[in-house]
Hints:
Strand order of the largest sheet: 1-2-3-4-5-7-10-11
Number of domains: 1
CATH superfamily: Glycosidases
Strand content: 5-15%
Structural class: alpha/beta
Bound molecules: D-gluconic acid
CATH architecture: Alpha-Beta Barrel
Number of strands: 13
Largest sheet: 8 strands, parallel, barrel
Order of helices and strands: EHHHEHHEHHEHHEEHHHHEEEHEHEEEH
CATH class: Alpha Beta
Amino acid sequence: MAFSGDFVWGAATSSYQIEGGWDADDKGENVWDMQCKWPGKVHGGHTGNVACNHYEHYREDVQLMKQMQLQAYRFSVSWARVMPEGTGRLSEKGIDFYDRLIDELLAAEIEPWLTLFHWDYPLALFRRGGWLNRDSVQWFADYTRVLVDRFSDRVTHWMTLNEPQCFIGSGHYHGNDAPGIKLPIGEVLLALHHALMSHGEAVRVIREHAKIKPTVGWAPVGVVKFPVVEDAAHIDAARHAMFYWYEDDLPLWTNTWYSDPVVFGRYPADGLKRFEKHMPWLNEDDMKVMCQPLDFYGANIYNGEPIGLDAENKPVSHKRHEGAPVTSFRWAIEPASLYWGAKFLQERYKLPIVITENGLSNADLVDVDGQVEDPQRIAFLTRYLRELERCLDDDVDVRGYFQWSLMDNFEWTYGYSQRFGLVHVDFETGARTPKSSADWYRKVIESNGALLSQLTRC
Ligand code: GCO
């Protein structure tokens, strides 16, 4: 059997996308609270003010996870909920919420996998310059210390940053995600530099202070290129494209600019040649801070770009055929991206891989009998998970898989227009209805993946 006994099956969410309670108790505001008040920034003027109201319904949500037999649950902590100003004062009520959530998970025999930061940066710190301020490294270390002190007697799995490509590239250069600003490239690279140093400091703090031996990783975007034909020339071309290409002549949507510093302690040489002129502040000691030993490499993989060869055998983006399958987000459905993504990332970074996100947005709706049937999600997951199984057959060290997402939620600038959940949420009433994929996923978990080799319907 491909999936080993200790392979971890889970599902993921993030604080801003599900919690709601945006001003509950003494929570401070974060940049997404700001973004949602900014006219035109979020689809339909939607906000995360209430979202799934997980802040009040977390017990019910843990019960849903238990029904699904999830072994692990990846969630993030809202920094401004536990530290309203981002530094200094703690909110005991905010900390208490996560205490109760963690206890509830453990009582249900679900392992908490905690992400320190999934985009909801404290507004008070953004006003002090946010990631542009070098002090942000210390702010993040102090915040990490609070979570480690309070939760590491029960939490053993930690992830530092989720998708720096998005909160820096999209948030500070393209101005789409919060904080929604457009800075010149030099400032963007500086903000990212501090975020990567913050990652390193957080790893150090976790290792130094955790009460139980921690397992530490991070969760960048897995930017994936895969070969259209699986022969040696195409595989080499796809590998090259995955690690040596800069889209739009920028390093913002890459693997290497983020992960080489974190794993190898240096920015990639090809990128440095082009961007060093924007980085007069670069120094060796900072690189040492970023590069801390990791136990796993988390990759968020949804799709990838097919790579072919041009007349000179150079990698070239291969045009998908007309009518090729897409999600309701219009994202390409490319199951092979999970195989090649995990394989190439492991080859380069030599760390165990955990798929920290993967899933489908779909136009799910409640039928007249109250059921939500989502055969598309089952087909999508079957195809992707079979590719993951192929990784294991080929000895790619993949340790776990987190489905995105446990439940429908606030999809950032797209508001509630995209449903990614195994559980349907009626955003008017808050009602939760497990979709047929939830029951199917339970069976996959129960069979430890064996079910994937059969064609199953629910
Ligand atoms: C991301 C985030 C998630 C998203 C998911 C679907 O990858 O953008 O980590 O919060 O909701 O990926 O877009």
